[in-house]
């Protein structure tokens, strides 16, 4: 039986979240709090944050849209997307990149199964290299 697209999106969410954490060396990019990579963290742990929300399919899996934050920093930025978070992103990536992300987030994107499967494999492999 063919798996639904939502299945592959969930798998990719997990793979890319794991990659973002590993790439950041399990450290919050805002406050520099470090976490043990061998522990699974729930809501109180280390998060993969989306500057442009996960509902924006065109930027959902773009690495420049994703950041590694502890629960406190993630909560802080979630309430300040167009102020403090945007300023932080501009400092990190530059105004041009942030404006491109904001523009891209308003575009329509439909994923194909094979695209998601390829990205899942890519990010699982990338985690091994971190």
Largest sheet, in brief, is: 2 strands, antiparallel
Q: What's the multimeric state?
A: single chain
Please tally the helical runs, counting DSSP H or I stretches of 4 or more residues: 5
> How far is it from the N-terminal to the C-terminal residue, by CA?
34 Å
Can you offer a commentary on this structure?
With 130 residues, the chain is mainly alpha-helical. The chain has one domain. Helices cover 52% and strands 8% of the residues. It contains five helices and two strands; from the N terminus they run H-E-E-H-H-H-H. It has a two-stranded antiparallel ribbon. Helix 1 runs parallel beside helix 5 and helix 3 crosses helix 4. It is globular. The model has no long low-confidence stretch (mean pLDDT 93).
Quickly list its features:
130 residues; mainly alpha; two-stranded antiparallel ribbon; 2 strands
Please render the helix and strand layout as text.
Elements: H1 5-23, E1 46-50, E2 66-70, H2 71-78, H3 81-93, H4 95-104, H5 113-129
Antiparallel strand pairs: 1-2
In short:
The protein has 130 residues and is mostly helical. The chain has helices spanning 5-23, 71-78, 81-93, 95-104, 113-129, and strands at 46-50, 66-70.
């Amino acid at each position: 039986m063919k798996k639904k697209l939502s299945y592959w999106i969930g798998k990719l969410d997990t793979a890319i979240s794991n990659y973002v954490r590993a790439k950041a060396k399990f450290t919050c990019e805002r406050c520099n709090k470090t976490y043990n990579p061998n522990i699974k963290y729930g809501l109180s742990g280390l998060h993969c944050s989306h500057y442009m929300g996960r509902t924006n399919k065109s930027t959902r899996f773009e690495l420049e849209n994703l950041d590694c934050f502890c629960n406190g920093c993630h909560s802080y930025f979630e309430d300040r997307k167009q102020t403090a978070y945007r300023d932080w992103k501009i400092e990190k990536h530059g105004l041009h990149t942030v404006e491109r992300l904001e523009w891209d987030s308003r575009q329509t994107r439909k994923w194909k199964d094979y695209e998601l499967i390829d990205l899942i494999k890519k990010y699982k492999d990338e985690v091994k290299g971190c």
